[in-house]
Design a protein that fits this description.
By secondary structure, this protein is α/β, with parallel strands linked by helices. It contains 24 helices and 21 strands. β6 and β7 form a beta hairpin. Bound molecules: adenosine-5'-diphosphate (ADP) and magnesium ion. Pfam families: DEAD (PF00270), Helicase_C (PF00271), RecG_dom3_C (PF19833), RecG_wedge (PF17191).
């Protein structure tokens, strides 16, 4: 009984050596071979020579009607000439310096010829010569490598299709195929390899891309379902107590915040382990959402942990949340690297006996030997800053704590629904009321004076400003502004009227916290900093962000930096000083000027850098789709995702006859890469 799962070696002409070579292209089974699709096609649609113009690229199908003549002249130069009958007309064809064509060009042979039309001589100067191509107008071009040649692939795929066409079962449910007018799988595979024309190739590609997205999403969704069936804590908090707490928040939650709070709280009450990604642009107010979830957990008698990527951010969270939690039972412990042994021991004891019920820290939270009394919720702020393993480790703490991963922009939609497809996603797509869009300006370095003038004007109106420079110390190879030098310059420029502070990663924690505190208290008006302020830092009175050498930063990072301002009611500004030397650099600056929308920025970032680079290949988990392009075909990817989710969530979908090919597919393709 033939099956697409048969090894390729069952195909005539595939010996052990070829089979070995094919594995370098990821081909092991007949199905792998049949779904090894062309990357493009040569168009063999014939040209009407009557209307062809001089030097036009032409294609003809015909029969060789004169004995081909090969002449040699000069050093290693050849000319191969013969006549071809096309319909009732005869044309002269010549090939220069392709002596090997002599073997294919034989009298009476049917051929397809591609070349350039020479109008004055009424002949074709050939570039390609193909035999047996008459039945189709499109020639598949496969991504080959040095082990497997183009011609081998063509031949094997042809044989494989011929032998296995009748066992190609359609995977997609009929309802979806009808809804999107997709081809059945056999036709799709046929037309991917041997389309009769361009429109057949396009239709096949559409079906293939959808099928690929759908199958991938089906695997993710089935993992998600399996995860959901795992044990977790049922966190049953007193609803009234939580509502009373929410009333103490000094502002009204946005609609989007309310919605995501509900989504999270619903998960907390369920008996399975929550695995939720909270996405929201910088400044959209994720912290308060986290605070509400934390308090729900504490009310129910559990502990919560909040992990931040930097000490500065951890300290800021501890300080701000202490205010938010006044009058509640939340007792915060900030675990930092700068604690002495005695302090640390004290802290760990409190965590173990449960007297501390909100633990805030950096990855020390997972690296140190921290024993939790009853960890119910683990929150990871700026989760893209953490490696997969670190996230996984935090998840292992306690008895299956619910996990909430928070992130701003660097995960564009595409990545969110590919690599994070097994997580539930909550999105805050609304900024708090009264926010004005940040005005972004791009200046050349010889216009830096204008920026300083502008800063002065803003400071005079009571604003606070950030000034960012890329590196801490002078580097000989990189001509970048030096934070310490900049700081000196700014002191000279702005003192004594305004206080200037310096913040960089090499300062010790106490110094950092002091500077941050002074900035929050408006004792410092100008904060010169390296990118340590990139994530999370929140001072709503800061309204200007000045970035030197802005082209040295990636888009995601620039957007994060810009997100430090525009957090209050006042108009905020972002000034980029840059003389980009690459086209990419120019595009990045333009993108920043054009849009404030983090999702747009992220999407553009993805287009400029490619999906693999955005989170680093390993971490992103974005598969190499063979046909579909997660950027260009984003809409289709989204649709496939919701279709897959709908199917998986239909009761007994896996018992229905029409879905058996899919069930079988899933058992064969269990997703082994588990994205933490
Ligand atoms: P991010 O999502 O970038 O982490 P934050 O949680 O730091 O954003 O919130 C940004 C600022 O907006 C904070 O100063 C916060 O107090 C404020 N904020 C959050 N939600 C609201 C709201 N609904 N109305 C007004 N201000 C809000
Ligand atoms: Mg934040």
């Amino acid at each position: 009984m033939k099956s697409l799962q048969d090894p390729v070696s069952t195909i005539r002409g595939v010996g052990p050596k070829t089979a070995e070579a094919l594995t370098t292209l990821g081909i092991q089974t007949v199905e792998d071979l049949l779904t090894y699709f062309p990357s493009r096609y040569d168009d063999f649609a014939p040209t009407d020579l009557e209307t062809a113009k001089d030097k036009q690229k032409v294609t003809i199908h015909g029969t060789i009607v004169s004995e081909p003549v090969m002449s040699r002249f000069g050093y290693r130069r050849t000319r191969l000439g013969f006549r071809v009958m096309v319909g009732h007309a005869v044309v002269q064809v010549v090939y220069f310096n392709q002596p090997y064509l002599k073997k294919q060009a034989v009298m009476d042979q049917d051929v397809t010829i591609m070349g350039t039309w020479n109008a004055s001589r009424q002949e074709i100067q050939g570039t390609k010569l193909l035999t047996n191509q008459q039945d189709q107008e499109m020639g598949a071009i496969y991504p080959a490598n040095k082990h497997v040649h183009q011609a081998t692939l063509r031949k094997l795929i042809k044989i494989a299709y011929h032998n296995y066409a009748n066992v190609i079962a359609t995977l997609l449910p009929i309802s979806l195929r009808q809804r999107y007018q997709l081809l059945d799988r056999r036709t799709m595979i046929h037309d991917m390899h041997f389309p009769k024309d361009g429109s057949a190739a396009r239709a096949a590609r559409r079906t293939a891309a959808y099928e690929e997205f759908f199958l991938f999403q089906l695997r993710l969704q089935s993992i998600r379902r399996a995860n959901r069936q795992k044990d977790g804590n049922q966190i049953l908090y007193n609803n009234q107590e939580l509502r009373d707490f929410i009333k103490t928040i000094p502002f009204e939650l946005t609609g989007a915040q309310k919605r995501v709070v509900n989504e999270i709280c619903r998960d907390l009450r369920q008996p399975y382990q929550m695995n939720r990604l909270l996405q929201g642009d910088v400044g959209s107010g994720k912290t308060i959402v986290a605070a509400i979830a934390i308090n729900a957990v504490v009310i129910a008698g559990y502990q919560a942990a909040l992990m931040a990527p930097t000490e500065i951010l951890a300290a800021q969270h501890a300080q701000k949340l202490a205010k938010v939690f006044v009058g509640t039972h939340v007792n915060i412990g900030l675990l930092t690297g700068s604690m002495n042994t005695r302090q640390k021991r004290q802290m760990l004891k409190g965590i173990k006996d449960g007297s501390i019920n909100l633990i805030i820290g950096t990855h020390a939270l997972i690296q140190e030997q921290v024993d939790y009394a009853n960890l119910g919720l683990a929150i990871i702020d700026e989760q893209h800053r953490f490696g997969v393993n670190q996230r996984q480790q935090l998840r292992m703490k306690g008895v299956h704590p619910d996990v909430l991963a928070m992130t701003a922009t660097p995960i564009p939609r595409t990545l969110a629904i590919t690599s994070y497809g097994e997580m539930d996603v909550s999105i805050i797509d609304e900024l708090p009321a009264g926010r004005q869009p940040i005005k972004t300006t791009w200046l050349k370095s010889n216009q830096a004076d204008q920026a300083l003038q502008f800063l002065k004007g803003q400071l005079a109106q009571g604003a606070q400003v950030y000034v960012v420079s890329p590196l801490i110390e002078q580097s000989e190879t990189l001509d970048v502004q030096n934070a310490t030098d900049l700081y000196q310059e700014f002191v000279e420029y702005f003192a004594p009227q305004y206080q200037v502070g310096l913040l960089h990663g090499r300062m010790d924690n106490e110094q950092k916290e002091q500077v941050m505190q002074d900035f929050q208290d408006n004792k410092i008006q100008v904060m010169v900093a390296t990118t340590v302020i990139e994530v999370g830092v929140d001072n709503p009175n800061a309204t200007v962000m000045l970035i030197y050498d802005a082209d040295r930063f990636g888009l995601a990072q620039l957007h994060q930096l810009r997100g430090r301002v525009g957090r209050g009611q006042q108009q905020s500004y972002c000034l980029l000083i840059a003389d980009p030397k690459t086209e990419d650099g120019v595009k990045r600056m333009q993108t920043m000027v054009e849009t404030n929308d983090g999702f747009v920025v992220a999407q553009r970032d993805l287009e400029l850098r490619g999906s693999g680079d955005v989170l680093g290949n390993k971490q992103s988990g974005v598969p190499d789709f063979k046909v579909g392009d997660p950027v260009a075909d984003l809409k289709m990817l989204q649709i496939a995702r919701s279709d897959a989710a709908n199917l998986i969530n239909t009761p007994h979908w896996d018992l229905r006859d029409e879905n058996q090919p899919l069930v079988y597919y899933l058992t064969r393709h269990e997703l082994t890469t588990h994205f933490d």
